[in-house]
Amino acid sequence: MQLQNLPYLFVAYTLVWLVLFGYLFVIAAQVRAVRRDLDQLRAQLAAARPPHDGD
Amino acid sequence: MDKQLVLQETAPPSVGPRVAATQLREDRALRLLLGLAAIAMVVALYAIFVYAPTERVMGHVQRIFYVHVSLAWLSYLAFFVVFACSVGYLWRRDERWDAVARASAEIGVVFTTLFILSGALWGRPVWGTWWTWDARLTTTALLWFLYVAYLMLRAYVPDTARAARYAAVLGIVGFLDVPIIHMSVVWWRTLHPEPTVARLDSGPAAPPEMVITLVLASLAFGLLYLALLIVRVRLERLRDEVRQLEQALSLRGE
After folding, report:
1. pTM value?
2. Which domains does chain B have, with CATH numbers?
3. Sorting pLDDT into bands at 50, 70 and 90, what band is B10?
4. Is the predicted ipTM greater than 0.85, yes or no?
5. Which residue in B145, B152, B182 sits closest to B166, CA to CA?
6. Which pLDDT belongs to residue A48?
């Protein structure tokens, strides 16, 4: 019982870490993508702004 | 690993200096929090695999307990945050409450998925089955379905204000399942054992080394939850900003 169930222990910890790192990776990628979109939109908005807006 | 992906983001030149300074301050705080979480995880792993004694009957596989119970507690915390922020949103109609609720629900679902899977991996060698429809497991499965439904509601209702209202109600009602899960092993005869640490009527039944290890693991996962919540709320804020800019552009006839 002591050692024969070690694969379950190994799989449990590996699974937890893989999923958590994967989740963090996905969120980080989404943050980068949204920031890129935001920069493009800001640039478009600045280009579309008429000169008498005060900028 | 992907820590750098989050943190290397610096304020783009197109934003104002005040926004840029805030972003950089937030990046620094997040970097510190992730660093603390990483250190706490290393300490917790040392405690789990070296400091904690081997359980006499189950052997080494019992060490799944530390990650299983920590993730369960953090899931309950995540859903409590959803509950509190949902009440806040319905009361104040402030979108910031809703953003935190949405972020915490997603993290709660990830943590619940992991504690169900780790429980199955512990149950198979100890109980001889991956899953059984006992009270604790069934109410936990219900919790998972409730918050997956919460996320689906957010994704599929096109009117964001209406989705936020419906989700807030579900977030409040769904949390009622958490005390039922905790008490299920007391109220009904189940295969799942009664709590060995968080017992309402007496102190922990586990040896102090196991309790200390569990506390360390829970603290480590708590710091990770906090870091994930901050990143996830920031993502919500950025998405809101994108929606506002898109509206502004469409008003200008772009």
Report:
1. 0.87
2. 3-251 (1.20.120)
3. very low
4. no
5. B152
6. 77
Q: Which of B90, B88, B86, B111 is nearest to B229 (CA)?
A: B111
Q: Could B67 and A2 be called an inter-chain contact, meaning their C-beta atoms sit closer than 8 Å?
A: no
The mean-pLDDT minimum among A28-37, B2-11, B122-131 falls in B2-11
Q: Assess A3–B contact: CB distance below 8 Å, yes or no.
A: yes
Report yes or no: B53 and B66 within 8 Å, Cβ to Cβ.
Answer: no
Q: Are B111 and B117 in contact (CB under 8 A)?
A: no
What pLDDT band is residue B16 in, cutting at 50, 70 and 90? low
Question: Nearest CA to B116 among B129, B102, B130?
Answer: B130
| Chain B residue set in contact with A, beta carbons under 8 Å | 1-3, 5-6, 9, 12, 14-15, 54, 57-61, 63-64, 67-68, 71, 110, 113-114, 117-118, 121-122, 124-125, 224, 228, 231-232, 234-235, 238-239, 241-242, 245-246, 248-249, 252, 254
Looking at the complex, does the CB of residue A11 fall below 8 Å from at least one CB of chain B? yes
Q: Using 50, 70 and 90 to split pLDDT, how confident is the model at B64?
A: very high
Instruction: Measure the N-to-C terminal CA separation of chain B; round to a whole number of Å.
Output: 40
DSSP state at residue B194: P
pLDDT of amino acid B9: 43
Tell me which amino acid residue A11 is: V
